[in-house]
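One thing: mind reviewing this one?
=====
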Amino acid sequence: MKRWHAAALAALVMAFGAGTAQAQTQAQAQAQEKTKIKVGVSVGNAEQTFEVVRKVAARDGLDIQVITFSDYLQPNEALAAGDLDANAFQHKPFLDSQIKARGYKIVPVGLTLTAPLGIYSRAYKSVAQLPQGARIGIQNDPSNGNRALLLLQKAGLIKLRPGVGENGVNATPLDVVENPKKLRLIELDAAQLPRALDDLAAASINNDYAYRAGLSLQRDTIAVEDARGPYANLIATRAEDKDKPWVKKLVKAYQSEEVRRFIETEFKGSLIPAF
């Protein structure tokens, strides 16, 4: 009987010790939980929006430092290199193309907003006014160039070869099979298109670059992408971080009602919450 009691006592002590060790491990993990993060965004409306996100996240104990970028390549490079903890500037087709081209181990963790693409013009008020041989600027990166060509097709200006433009198959100017106005498609870096607009009849310009250039989606476009298409922007992190507690706090802060109201009020339909 005494031997049984001794064995039971030893088992109880071991269990208590194991429970204490587990509790200590959990406490250490909580103590080490990241409370300060760096998030890369594009300058302009994303920067404005993240000022609201930052305030919401602070109430949940997460301190966000917003790092701004003026192009679409550096934010993923910085994230992959560990200089950022997350970024929020791109849609999934663009991220997929970057992963394919550069081998990034980056994953989407939450949706942010949709920024409809527009065809902007300073000289013309409608696609019907575009003259024969007009020079039209489009983005030179695969995913946004594809968006531009699909928008030109939607506007009735060109027709693409069947089977390209959707389902992961990006179209290029070589895929244009009908071009009644003989438009000249000029491929440029996305950031250069607003500056080149004065030398073009029209140009496909991403929403953030258009916003920075003082262009209005409602006033200055002759064609606009559907607001709820497949190009919702997202928050991305390194794959190894996707389940970390701070990621959940970041996504929760962005997808809060406070941020939704800010987007709807501040941008009046030129940007649309995607959550």
